[in-house]
Amino acid sequence: MPPEHHTLPESPWHASPPVTELLRRLSLNDERAVRAALSGVPTSAPTLDRRTEALVELAGVLACGAPTAACRVAVEKARGARASDDEIVSVLVAIAPTLGAARLVATVPALALAIDYDVEHDEG
Q1: Do the beta carbons of residue 96 and residue 108 sit within 8 Å?
Q2: Of 2, 29, 68, 98, whose Cβ has the fewest other Cβ atoms within 10 Å?
Q3: 90 and 57, same structural domain?
Q4: What share of the chain has pLDDT > 70, as a percent?
């Protein structure tokens, strides 16, 4: 029996054919598509600008609870793409509802150290 196929209703927000093809290939664990996505190699799908991409990458690093070293790499990439420290901290605030209180509080020291601020030794 063939698998059931669902068709989404028409919408002006549907992804373009290159994007849907990329999603299809990734969902099938297509080796080339997965390798390209993991390496950051541009695809035929539309891409984000460098700054936005760096901030989204930082959000992913923060969301998975990565250590300070990984946060620092993501922060330096964001700074290299001209993101300010205020914008970098705003990423944490933006994902806070997703993180929840415990993960948020646990993530702050790593991000703070990554932007060269030590919350443990603040004199303020």
Answers
A1: no
A2: 2
A3: yes
A4: 84
Mean pLDDT across 13-28: 86
Residue 1 lies in a domain: no
Tokens of 3: 């698998």
Handedness of CA 87, 91, 93, 94 (dihedral sign): positive
- Can you give the residue range of the structural domain that contains 88? 50-121
First-to-final CA distance of the chain: 68
* Same domain for 113 and 100: yes
DSSP, residue by residue, the chain: -PPP---PPP-TTPPPHHHHHHHHHHHTT-HHHHHHHHHT---SS----HHHHHHHHHHHHHHTT--HHHHHHHHHHHHHTT--HHHHHHHHHHHHHHH-HHHHHHHHHHHHHHTT--GGG---
> What does pTM read for this prediction?
0.78
Instruction: Point out the least confidently predicted range of 10-24, 46-60, 82-96.
Output: 10-24
Residue 65 pLDDT > 90: yes
